[in-house]
Amino acid sequence: MPFSYGDDMDLAATLREVIMLCWDVVQSDLWQTVGASASRDGERMQRVFRDMAITIAHRNVQQRELFYGEVGRHVLGEPRAPFAG
Length: 85
Known about the structure:
Layout: H1 5-33, H2 44-56, H3 59-62, H4 64-76
Helix pairs in contact: 1-2, 1-4
């Protein structure tokens, strides 16, 4: 079976949720418990936080509702929505 547009939207939605769950753990639990020394330049935790902050700002995460609509349309057998551009 070929990889479809709906499959792409389903995969993107799953990865989006993984990104958001990881960000929640990093910013609310991990970052608050590692201590101030972990935020110094060159420290591993600083790099993890910076990389996660960049990831959460990616357009995939920012367009959550738009793409979830596409997932719903795919599951229900509805046509794709035209994207404004």
